[in-house]
What we know:
Strand order of the largest sheet: 1-2
Number of strands: 4
Helix content: 40-55%
Number of helices: 7
Structural class: mainly alpha
Distance between the termini: 66 Å
Shape: extended
Radius of gyration: 25 Å
Amino acid sequence: MRTGHTYTDHFRLETRQHELLGMDLGEGIPRRVLILTAVLYLVWDGLLLLLLGLPTKLSATLYLLPPGLAVAYGARPSTRVPRRIALTGWAISARYLITGHRPVICGGRRAATRSEWIGRRGRWAPRLTLLTGSSVLGPAVERWLGPDTDTAVPAGAGPVVRLTARPRLYGPDAVVRAHGRRAARKTRTARTQGAAA
């Protein structure tokens, strides 16, 4: 009997930022989290600056807290797929609620069949039970959800998506060869620059 081993988790190497603007960060912050934080703060604060203007003492929390919470909880490993961060799972769930199911088959996208297509009511109704029971918003939400049985199948799901992922596994011998090529390239460049001077 053969036993298979998965080493993927052991190869998860993340770079860390140990110093930022002259401040020592100790063990370091993962750079992916640092970049995610910067992007979220730039987008969120940019939108709020356009809508509300400069922050006041009362609105400063609105500028700082939501992106901070999104990074604090979103940068953790996902409970469903450990290789992803939680923010990726949230984005995939939101995309599913908005656009529905779009299968990727044989390197291209195709329209979903009737058995695969889940209409707006099927995707949103379990999440909107409180609103559908409301006397004020209930009728509007029911109209937006559409009929109980969605018989409409979308005509097409969009252009073909090309999948060009090629997984590679590098061992120590490949790293040594790459380092040797890099060192040879540096010496060649140094020689040509020395000859040109």
